[in-house]
Design brief:
The complex is a heterodimer of chains A (115) and B (115). Chain A contains no helices and twelve strands. The mean pLDDT of chain A is 93. Classes of the chains: A mainly beta (115), B mainly beta (115).
Chain lengths: 115, 115
């Protein structure tokens, strides 16, 4: 069975600096999708970025980018120029390419932004 | 317009009561989900319906019963509430197709407190 591991329960970063959140996963599949979701204090879950496993190019969305290492089964999220509004729980999630659409979730990383 | 809505957002009730949480999505999606998020923020899938048919039914007490009257609605009924049922319950939806990422859109969550 697939698993997703986020080894950092909490991270903190100074405003305007860069932070990287780690995520590793375990799978025997070759076709899958990876996601980072953000949950701010409002508790609304928001998709930050996604990556298709067959794409070698790392996904980028404005200040958010990923470092996808398929062989290492690693999917880290880099947040550049951190802003106070980035403070949230960040969840990494995995979805099989042909599954019943279930997401496998990591335990989350709480990101604190220091002003 | 709200994409995925849940009612109520907050629910405080006594042990032993029966309660329902309603979810509606106006995205035209064919798959809907219920998640439970505990106090440690861990997200656990409970149920998933695809075109009103149950496709994921994780190990949850049978006091929890989902009902999907149509593909835009997925309600969660909980009988004989227990203290351990206190959590935030999220509804989500996606357009489920194999070999696409099927981004899940989340509702705002319902914070259930059982006294």
């Amino acid at each position: 069975a697939q698993t997703v591991t986020q080894s950092q329960p909490e991270m903190s970063v100074q405003e305007a600096e860069t932070v990287t959140l780690s995520c590793t996963y375990d799978t025997s599949e070759s076709d899958y999708y990876l996601f980072w979701y953000k949950q701010p204090p409002s508790r609304q879950m928001i998709l930050v970025i996604r990556q298709e496993a067959y794409k070698q190019q790392n996904a980028t969305e404005n200040r958010f980018s990923v470092n996808f290492q398929k062989a290492a089964k690693s999917f880290s999220l880099k947040i550049s120029d951190s802003q106070l509004g980035d403070a949230a729980m960040y969840f990494c999630a995995y979805r099989s390419g042909d599954s019943n659409y279930q997401l496998i979730w990591g335990a989350g990383t709480k990101l604190i932004i220091k002003p | 317009d709200t994409a995925v809505s849940q009612t109520p957002k907050y629910l405080v009730t006594q042990m032993g009561n029966d309660k329902s949480i309603k979810c509606e999505q106006n995205l035209g999606h064919d798959t809907m989900y219920w998640y439970k998020q505990d106090s440690k923020k861990f997200l656990k899938i409970m149920f998933s319906y695809n075109n009103k048919e149950l496709i994921i039914n994780e190990t949850v007490p049978n006091r929890f019963s989902p009902k999907s009257p149509d593909k835009a609605h997925l309600n969660l009924h909980i009988n004989s509430l227990e203290l351990g049922d206190s959590a935030v319950y999220f509804c989500a939806s996606s357009q489920a197709r194999a070999y696409t990422d099927n981004e899940q859109f989340f509702g705002p969550g319902t914070r259930l407190t059982v006294l």
